[in-house]
């Protein structure tokens, strides 16, 4: 039909590029779309039953002292486990829904000038509460307040993900620095920590869904493994790229590079 979109790739080969290969990717594209729709639908379907389960677990936990005797000794611990696992599942579902929305929503919608300085302030404050008595030293270096043409909520969620990771993967009392600077017309937003870092072979795979460096590390920090995939998609929608540097035991830096076309105006 006239509505149907074709997806194909063209490659030139051989001496003087005399061989032309046209590959029809329509079917692959359709399959990718079906997978995305499927993930979005499953996430939606799981959300409601999980809300009901979590609600009842909470009711039971709140009223455990009223349960009939003889009490079951493992009951409080079992309820606790059920609650934390249900929360983990809910977080994964929410992140999957955020991801599928990022993949399908029009990236030109809701564009506005987003001021960097207040954004960094707000994320740093959230990260300080998240750190709590782990007492990280979270500082901001933002000498020129630029505005980025983008989606404020999406940018906030991307930067939060990076900064909260810095808190999760940096030992207590560690340093985390949020920095904004404009250099050679590009804008650089970087988050630097002196935490546990990682071996270089992990870096190219960090933004894959559910990629995590080791499972035990993951379980104790309670992440979903989707945070950096969300970051990648948000940056893609802002024509920006993620640059990662890290050394085991020394720390990591995650830098978002924004092109000039996205930077609006610099206050003197
Ligand atoms: P998670 O929910 O597991 O944190 P992410 O997608 O946000 O998932 O990150 C993927 C993996 O990258 C993490 O599991 C962690 O191993 C590693 N990682 C992310 N940020 C840092 C950091 N600042 N320092 C060390 N490792 C990190």
UniProtKB/TrEMBL annotation:
GO cellular component terms listed in the entry, alphabetical order: plasma membrane
A biological-process GO annotation: phosphate ion transport
Catalyzed reactions per annotation: ATP + protein L-histidine = ADP + protein N-phospho-L-histidine
Keyword hit for Transport: yes
Major localisation: membrane
Location within or outside the cell: Cell membrane
Domain of life: Bacteria
EC number, as in UniProt: 2.7.13.3
Domain (Histidine kinase): residue spans on this chain: 41-262
The entry's keywords: ATP-binding, Cell membrane, Kinase, Membrane, Nucleotide-binding, Phosphate transport, Phosphoprotein, Transferase, Transmembrane, Transmembrane helix, Transport, Two-component regulatory system
One Gene Ontology molecular-function label: phosphorelay sensor kinase activity
Function as written in the Swiss-Prot or TrEMBL entry: Member of the two-component regulatory system PhoR/PhoB involved in the phosphate regulon genes expression. PhoR may function as a membrane-associated protein kinase that phosphorylates PhoB in response to environmental signals.
Protein name: Phosphate regulon sensor protein PhoR
Organism expressing this protein natively: Parendozoicomonas haliclonae
Part of the intact protein present: 175 to 442 of 442
């Amino acid at each position: 039909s006239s509505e149907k979109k074709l997806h194909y790739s063209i490659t030139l080969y051989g001496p003087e590029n005399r061989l032309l290969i046209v590959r029809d990717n329509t079917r692959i594209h359709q399959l990718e779309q079906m997978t995305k729709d499927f993930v979005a639908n499953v996430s939606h379907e799981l959300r409601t039953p999980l809300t009901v389960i979590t609600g009842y677990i909470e009711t039971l936990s709140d009223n455990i002292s009223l349960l009939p005797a003889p009490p079951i000794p493992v009951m409080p611990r079992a309820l606790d486990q059920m609650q934390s696992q249900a929360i983990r599942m809910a977080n994964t579902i929410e992140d999957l829904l955020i991801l599928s929305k990022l993949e399908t929503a029009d990236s030109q919608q809701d564009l506005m000038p987003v001021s960097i300085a207040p954004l960094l302030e707000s994320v740093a404050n959230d990260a300080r509460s998240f750190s709590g008595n782990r007492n990280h030293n979270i500082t901001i270096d933002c000498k020129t307040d630029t505005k980025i043409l983008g989606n404020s909520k999406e940018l906030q969620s991307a930067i939060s993900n990076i900064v909260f990771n810095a808190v999760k993967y940096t030992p207590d009392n560690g340093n985390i620095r949020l920095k904004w600077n404009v250099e050679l017309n590009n804008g650089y937003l970087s988050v630097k920590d002196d935490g546990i870092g990682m071996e270089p072979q992990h870096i190219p795979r960090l933004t894959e869904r559910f990629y995590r460096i080791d499972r035990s590390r993951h379980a104790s920090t309670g992440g979903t493994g989707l945070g950096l995939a969300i970051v990648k998609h948000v940056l893609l929608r802002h024509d920006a790229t993620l640059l990662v540097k890290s050394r085991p035991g020394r720390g990591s830096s995650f830098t978002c590079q924004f092109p000039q076309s996205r930077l609006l105006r610099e206050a003197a």
